[in-house]
Amino acid sequence: MATSDTSVVVVGGGVAGLSAALYTGRAGLQTTVVSTGDSILRRNAHLENYPGFPAGINPRLLLDLLEEQVADAGVTFADGRIQRVTSEGDGFELLSADGDSYDADYVIAASWADATYLEGLDVEFVDRGSKTFVGVDDFGSTTVEGLYAAGRLAEQHHQTVVAAGHGAQVGIAVVEDSDVDFYHDWTVPEGYFTGRGREVPPGCEEIDEAEREDREAASLERMREAFAEPHPEAPTMHPSVAEDE
To answer: Is residue 109 part of a domain?
Structure first.
């Protein structure tokens, strides 16, 4: 897909943030994921309710594969904890605890359970007991233009598939709000559009049978490799339990 000058920073490298980044990256937006690397999903012992895996899947493997897929989409990764986001002209400046700064046209906040770095902006916060969420519309937009929230931070259910779906929805919303030409992120058989006398729409791709077989073969090989051995990492314990040990 074509590359755009539009920049996106995703704060948080969990399922919601990575899913959003996958769609913005595949659409050609210059996307950076800033994360501490401690997604809550890594605490899960075995993920048993994610569609497509009848016997469940190791959640750390799922995250590893998603990170790989996002990187293949041209997304860059940066280690860090964002401490402040400020409006700068038509975009934003993000500052990390280590002093690194990032400029972005769009920001997607997907960093459960911390939203304090947004306090300098005119964002609507929603308090539910000890939890603080960010108020968004049906597409993840906040009250600040160009700022979105995805996943649990946007008061979505605390389930992996919900976080993935909402992250994807927010990522597509950013793409549609940007200046990039976009119809759907589809890969279709050769002739699906052109066979009806239509041009292939922006974001779509037609491939012939040989290319389809090559991609399927590459997919099968990658999956065999990924599932050949148990994942080496153990679940990450809840911080309060770890502190007591």
So the answer is: yes
Beta-sheet pairing, 101-104 with 91-96: antiparallel
Whether residue 123 lies inside any domain: the answer is: yes
CATH number at 59 reads 3.50.50.60
Dihedrals phi, psi of 81, to nearest 5 degrees? -115, 115
Three-state DSSP state, 6: coil
Asked whether the whole model's pTM tops 0.90, one would answer yes
CA distances from 227 to 16, 69, 155 (A): 23, 16, 33
Burial 63-82 (b: 16+ CB within 10 A, else e): beebbebbbebbbebeebeb
Q: What is the pLDDT of residue 243?
A: 63
Kindly write down the DSSP assignment for every residue of 201-234, as one continuous string.
PTTEEEE-HHHHHHHHHHHHHHHHHHTSS--SPP
Instruction: Give the 3-state secondary structure of residue 238.
Output: coil
